Please model this.
Amino acid sequence: MFHISELCLSPLRFIAISATVPNVSDVVAWLDSSNGIGVTISQDLRPVKLEKIVLGYDPNPSARASEYRFDIQLSYKVEAIIRAHSDSKPVIVFSSTRKSVEFTAKILAASNETYFFSDSHRDEYFNEVSKLINANFDISSGFIYDNENYFKNVDLKTCLASGVGFYHSGMDSAERRLLEKLFAKSLIPVLVSTSSLAMGVNLPAHMVIIKNTVQYLAGKTIEYDSAQVLQMIGKSNTFILILIVLIRFNLIFLGRAGRPQFDVTAKAVIMTETSKKNFYDTLLNSDKAIESVLPLTLIEQLMIEIVLRTVTSIETTVDWICSTFMYIRIVSNPSYYGSSIAKGDIEGSLPFIFNWSHENINKLANLSLINMKPESNSFEPTHLARIVTRYGISIKSTELLLKMLKEGFNLKMFLEKLSECQELSSDIILRVSEKKFLNEYSKNLRFKSKDKIKNSSMKINCLLQVNVINSFQMYL
Model:
């Protein structure tokens, strides 16, 4: 089995730190089992003690048929949680969509009481805003008179008067920077945000609330990934991994709950359906091992290695797989990866890896992505493989396009199939606010849809026709 350290040309040292990875021994074994040292630090040594609360709610009759309605139901529960648990300290509320973020902020701001900790705290906020944006404010009404029209979003200005801000990637960048500065100074008591704040901006709070545990992707509702939840709230155990052979510094997941310079305690609250409460209780209070996601794109990653000439035969394919974290987890948790070998059976895992390798190599050969060389028991990439890897086309999409070339197609069929490819549909989201415009515009398209636009693939089809076909017609 290869280790990461064996791939380095010179002696280096690698230090990895994480707040969420419990299976430290697996990471050590992957990086360098002979020289690696893994240290787990318990929650008792955490500078800010984290209290974790999971609240389960039963959907009311109108919310049982829709996750969207249940999300609205939870929006009205957030204020009571803030009043009961915030200890008059900054709070971040995470919500899944931009629309939900703004709706939740408006509900909170409509309260009869503001969220400022005191009158002096409120005055300090308005004074700071005045200096930052050259504005005046009315102390009696708490309203900002924006001389330079700094605030593009009127709802934001209204919510901030109550001590509530909202933050998402669709906002003006100047407004986002202002919110970051004000929240970092603890001048905004409550900030409602999408998960983008957890991933990209370091603004910890005393309390974090995750309002609902589902997110909207490609028109569907799915549960947050466990890593996303832990990223937003922080995990109780951390580890420090020190290796003598590699050098690199990597901060993996830093939670948002807890500010060492201000607090000695922090709180994280998850709001979810009653039926899911036990799952999240277990997630927060147990050390669930991190698994590899490499199986999801194994054949694409393998093809990249073949194009780079790292992998040139079945034997080197097996060696490459055995150098991955996925292989460590196959040995530790074989059933998760569809293997029937005994746990910890390294020798027994090799036939499983060999069959896996053979299956994927045969699939690449059948798609004409590699040329087999029987005389040397090796293979080499084709020109098509280089094109596919260069543009990041998945094997599934490659199969679809090759099948169309073989069976024949017309332009309408090509656009429909292309619109369904995951490379496009996974990144482009159909927003409710866009439907009216797209449905109206689609009436003028060359290939009109029988149904109204209701998913991301139909949106992509519309945009492709506008941009591609119209561009072609300019030159005809």
